[in-house]
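Input (structure):
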């Protein structure tokens, strides 16, 4: 068992953890859902990621952003989930389902515009090889930094950059009207 954390430090950890949950709860759930395609399992995995983060928070060394560390935990749980049941095939959620989840309060016009772009983009992303899809979803869609994606996927940052470039290039080639949206 780990060593006891002094009361004052424990309060600070709990406050930090509470902020982490509030800031990342819906985004982490969507991240997991996008990777496994099952609502109830995604809820369980996202919750488990927070539980594991809470248990290990006192030993967090600060070598990365706290959010990167959290998403790394979630990615490992997703991998474990997929490895335990290889017959599970990824099913990407429809834009309608993802749009129905709260995302911070965008208005109807912004949501409609985003839905049109995302519908077009989703079709193009599905045509990419799996490794390019994964990087594109993490960086371009979920908004993770190159460093965060590299830590999560346990690959070099240069590989993230290369794969993202190739994914964007393939999409721009197939749909030139998305060029402006996919600027580097």
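Output (sequence):
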């Amino acid at each position: 068992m780990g060593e006891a954390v002094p009361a004052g430090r424990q309060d600070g950890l709990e406050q930090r953890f509470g902020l982490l949950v509030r800031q990342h709860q819906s985004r982490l759930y969507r991240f997991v859902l996008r990777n496994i395609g099952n609502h109830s399992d995604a809820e369980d995995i996202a919750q488990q990621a927070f539980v594991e983060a809470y248990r290990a928070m006192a030993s967090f060394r600060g070598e990365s952003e706290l959010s990167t560390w959290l998403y790394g935990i979630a990615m490992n749980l997703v991998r474990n989930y997929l490895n335990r049941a290889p017959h599970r095939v990824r099913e990407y959620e429809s834009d309608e389902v993802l749009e129905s989840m709260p995302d911070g309060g965008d208005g109807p016009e912004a949501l409609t515009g985003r839905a049109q772009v995302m519908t077009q983009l989703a079709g193009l992303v599905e045509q990419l090889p799996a490794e390019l899809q994964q990087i594109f979803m993490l960086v371009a869609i979920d908004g993770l930094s190159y460093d965060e994606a590299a830590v999560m996927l346990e690959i070099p940052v240069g590989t993230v950059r290369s794969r993202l470039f190739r994914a964007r290039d393939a999409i721009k080639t197939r749909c030139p009207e998305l060029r402006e949206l996919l600027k580097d």
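Notes: Helices lie at 7-36, 39-56, 66-84, 95-99, 108-126, 130-141, 146-153, 157-174. The radius of gyration is 18 Å.
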